[in-house]
Specification:
It is a single chain. The chain contains two helices and no strands. It is mainly alpha-helical. It has one domain. It is rod-shaped. It starts with a helix and ends with a helix.
Length: about 100
């Protein structure tokens, strides 16, 4: 009785071994496919990342030019100084014009 059980187990083990061999071969094929796909995806992603980096460098350049323009805009104190100078100049012209009308 024990010999029959061992014989059945050995037969089952040989079936399991053959199934494992087939699975191993299929896993090897899947591994090769995944390696190919990963290489392809890596190439595409590198291309897209390069394009994104190019766009970002363009945006950085634009931001730099905008910052330069903002640095050229006078501050409130500068504007007040310009307005005060203009008002004093206009008042001086009016005073001079009134003086020569006499």
């Amino acid at each position: 009785m024990l010999a029959q059980r061992v014989a059945r187990l050995e037969a089952d083990m040989s079936e399991i071994k053959s199934a494992l061999v087939r699975l191993d071969a299929k896993f090897d094929k899947l591994d090769a496919k995944f390696d190919g796909k990963l290489g392809e995806m890596d190439g595409r992603l590198n291309g897209k990342l390069g394009a994104i980096e190019g766009r970002l460098s363009g945006i950085e350049g634009r931001i730099g030019s905008v910052e330069g323009r903002f640095n050229q805009v006078p501050t409130i104190w500068g504007m007040l100084g310009i307005v005060a100078t203009l008002l004093i100049g206009i008042a001086g012209l009016m005073f001079t014009g009134k003086y020569f009308q006499r």
